[in-house]
Backbone:
């Protein structure tokens, strides 16, 4: 289910004109940067997505 969400989300990124900052902060707990090529978004529901 998450993979489907990410696929659709990536597809829509080109069309995003406005990002609601409050919605972003409501979802993302923190971002961890280990290295330049290892960044992880940690969501408040416990999910972690490597980018």
Residues:
């Amino acid at each position: 289910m998450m993979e489907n969400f990410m696929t659709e989300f990536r597809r829509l990124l080109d069309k995003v004109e406005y990002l609601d900052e409050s919605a972003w902060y409501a979802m993302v707990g923190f971002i961890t940067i280990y290295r330049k090529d290892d960044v992880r978004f940690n969501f408040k529901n416990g999910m972690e997505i490597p980018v």
In short: The mean pLDDT is 85.
